[in-house]
TrEMBL record, chains A, B:
The keyword DNA-binding does not apply. This is Unannotated protein. The keyword Metal-binding applies. Keywords: Magnesium, Metal-binding, Transferase. Belongs to the FPP/GGPP synthase family. GO terms for molecular function: metal ion binding; prenyltransferase activity. GO terms for biological process: isoprenoid biosynthetic process. SUPFAM superfamilies: Terpenoid synthases. Its cofactor is Mg(2+).
C-alpha cells in the first residue's frame, strides 16, 4: 500500500518537474530575448527549482483534488506546480532575511550572486549585489508563480474558485513570515506566539491551503469537505513545523544541507525553544543566553544547548506532540467525505511531513 | 482645456485613493484578526500608499480605457488602483536595494522598521529587522496588488483579457530592475544598455503597459489600438525616465523628498551619465571617478560632478531628447484610433511625466 502510494507520489513529482522545466524554459527564452544579461537570473532560478525539493505543496494540492473525488486532468498539474514557484520566493527571501549561506547544500541565492560578483571582479559592493539579486529573483518567482497559474489552461470557473484561496494563502504566508521575524526581536519567548507562527507558516500555508486549492480546482469543494481537509491539514502542518524545528537543532548537516544547529545560531524562537524556556530555571536561562543566537556559535556551544533542550524534556515533548497531531490528522482522513482514492496519498504524505530527516 | 484635464485627473486620483483606502482598511482588519503584532505592517503600508504619489500608472490605465472609446465603470477604477500596490512593492524593494534612507521626504520602509527596532529597544540587529520588514512588506504589496485586481469585480472576459498583459508587465518590471542593478556593477558605462533599462523600467512598466491594461479592460483592445498606445507610451516613458535621471542629479531636495545628488552618490549609470562619459576625455573620466559613487559624497563633490555633466553638454542633450520623445508621443495621440475623450488626459499626462520637478 505504502509503496504504491510512494510510486504514485513520485509520478506526480515527475509530472510537476516537467511542467516547471517547460515553464522555466519559456520564461528563460523570454528574458534572454530582452537581454543576454538576464541569463544568470533564469539560470539561478532553474537550478534552484529543478531536481530538488519535496514538492510538498503540489502533492497536497493533488491530494485535495482527489479527495473531492475528481479525476486529475492536464491543466491541474500545471496549476498546482505553480505553488513551487511561490515556495521558491519564500525560500529565497527567507534565506536573505536569515542571512543563511546555504540551501539544500548549495549556496543560497544572495550568496550565489555575491560570489559571481567577486569572481567576475564586478564594480561595487558584492553583498549589496547579492541582496538586490535575491530580492528581485524572489519577486520574479512570486510573479511567475501567479503567471504559471494564469496560463495553466484552467476554466473561468476554476479560476474563479481558486483565486480567493490562493490570495488568502499568500497573505497568510507573508503574515506568518512577518510574525516569525518579529518574534526574533522579542525579549521573552512565548509558547502561544510561537504556536501561532507554526500554524500560519506551516499549518495553513504548507498544507491546509494547498489541499483547499486542489479541492477548489475540482469544483466539488463543499464547505464540509474543506473543513475535513482543514482537520487533516492544520494539525499535520503544525507537526511538520515541529519536525522542522527539531531538525534545525538536532538535524544532521550532511542530510539537511544546512549547517548543524543553524536555528540555534540564528536564535530562532520556536515552540521547541519556548518549551525549553518554560521548563528552565532562571540560572539555566542565563546560561543559555550565552550561546543562543550567538553568530559565532561553535560545535561546543551547540552541544551545550542541545543538551539543555533534551534534558528539559522539550525534545521528548515535541516528539509526543508530533505524534498526537499526526494522529489527529490521520483520524480526519477516515471521514467519508474524503474520496477513497486520496487515502493512500494522504497517509503517505503525513509520514513524509513528520518522519523526515531533511 | 488643460485646467479641465487637470481637474479630471484629480477626480480619478481621488477615486483611486478611495479604492486604495477601502482595500487597505479591509486588509488591515484581516491582518490584525491574525495578530495585533501585524498592526505595524498595515500601518506602514497605508502611510506609504495613501495621501501621496502621482498615481501615474492608474491615470495612464484610465486613459487607455478612454482611448478605446469606453465609458469607465465601477470595477475598472478598483482594478487600475491595484497598480499602485505593485508600484509600492517596486519602491519598497528599490529603496532597500539602493540603501535609500528616504522616500517622498519620509523614511523608507526599511529605515522605518529599523528605527522602530531601536526606539522599542527590541532584541537583535536593527538593520536586519529593517531589511526583513522591507522584503516582506514589498512581497505583501505585490500579493495585494494582485488580490485587489482579482476582487475588483471584473467580468471573466475582462480578467481573461487583462491577465496576460499584467503578467508580462510584472516580468518586464523585474527584468528592468535586474538590468539596472546589474548595470551598476559594470566597469564601463554604455549608452545602449542604459537606454534599454530606461525603456523597460519606465517606457514599458510605467506607461505602455498601464495604457494596454486600460485598453484591455475596455474589451476594445485591437492590435492597432495597442500599437498606437505604444507609439505614445514608449517614447513618453523614456522621456519620463530621463526627467527622473535629471532630477536625481539636479533636483531640489526640498521638492523631490530625496537628498541632493542622490543618484551621483549611488553611482547610478543612467543615460545622462553615459552621455557625459561619451563626451569626456580620459583625464575627465579619471577625475569623475573620485566622486561618482562615493558613499560620502558631499555638496562640493556633487557640484563638481554637476558641472562636468552640464559642461559636457549631456544635460542639454537630455533636455533635447525629452522634447523630441515627448513630441513623438504627442504626434501619436493625433491618431484617429484614439477616442477624442482621451485626448486632454493624454496631453496633460505627457506634461506631468516630463515637466515635473518631483
Amino acid at each position: 500500500m505504502s509503496s504504491q502510494a510512494k510510486a504514485a507520489l513520485q509520478e506526480i513529482r515527475d509530472a510537476v518537474e516537467i511542467e516547471l522545466a517547460d515553464f522555466l524554459t519559456a520564461q528563460s527564452n523570454y528574458l534572454t530575448s530582452i537581454s543576454s544579461d538576464l541569463a544568470p537570473v533564469s539560470q539561478a532560478l532553474s537550478s534552484f527549482l529543478l531536481d530538488s525539493g519535496k514538492r510538498l505543496r503540489p502533492l497536497f494540492a493533488y491530494s485535495g483534488y482527489l479527495s473531492a473525488g475528481a479525476k486529475v486532468e492536464g491543466p491541474v498539474i500545471k496549476a498546482i506546480a505553480s505553488l513551487e514557484l511561490l515556495q521558491a520566493c519564500a525560500l529565497i527571501h527567507d534565506d536573505l532575511m536569515d542571512g543563511s549561506d546555504t540551501r539544500r547544500g548549495k549556496p543560497s541565492i544572495h550568496r550565489h550572486f555575491e560570489s559571481m560578483h567577486v569572481q567576475d571582479e564586478l564594480e561595487g559592493f558584492a553583498p549589496a549585489y547579492g541582496l538586490a539579486a535575491a530580492v528581485l529573483l524572489g519577486d520574479l518567482a512570486l510573479v511567475w508563480s501567479n503567471q504559471m497559474l494564469n496560463v495553466a489552461g484552467l476554466s473561468s470557473q476554476q479560476i474563479h474558485d481558486v483565486l480567493p484561496i490562493h490570495d488568502e494563502m499568500r497573505t497568510e504566508l507573508m503574515a506568518g513570515q512577518f510574525l516569525d521575524i518579529h518574534e526574533q526581536t522579542q525579549k521573552t519567548v512565548d509558547l502561544d506566539r510561537s504556536t501561532k507562527i507554526a500554524r500560519y507558516k506551516s499549518g495553513k500555508y504548507t498544507i491546509e491551503r494547498p489541499l483547499h486549492i486542489g479541492a477548489a480546482l475540482s469544483g466539488k469543494h463543499t464547505p464540509e469537505l474543506l473543513s475535513v481537509l482543514s482537520a487533516y491539514g492544520l494539525p499535520l502542518g503544525e507537526a511538520f513545523q515541529y519536525r522542522d524545528d527539531l531538525l534545525g537543532v538536532f538535524g544532521d548537516p550532511s542530510v539537511t544541507g544546512k549547517p548543524a544547529g543553524d536555528d540555534l545560531r540564528e536564535g530562532k524562537r520556536t515552540v521547541l525553544i519556548a518549551l525549553t524556556d518554560k521548563a528552565s530555571t532562571q540560572s539555566m536561562r542565563e546560561e543559555s543566553k550565552k550561546y543562543f543566537g550567538a553568530p559565532d556559535l561553535d560545535s561546543r556551544g551547540i552541544s551545550i544547548l542541545q543538551e539543555m533542550i533534551t534534558s528539559s524534556g522539550a525534545k521528548e515533548k515535541m516528539e509526543f506532540m508530533i505524534n498526537e497531531l499526526t494522529e489527529q490528522a490521520l483520524t480526519a482522513v477516515e471521514s467519508e467525505l474524503i474520496d477513497e482514492s486520496a487515502h493512500p496519498l494522504l497517509l503517505e504524505l503525513a509520514k513524509i511531513a513528520t518522519k523526515r530527516s531533511t
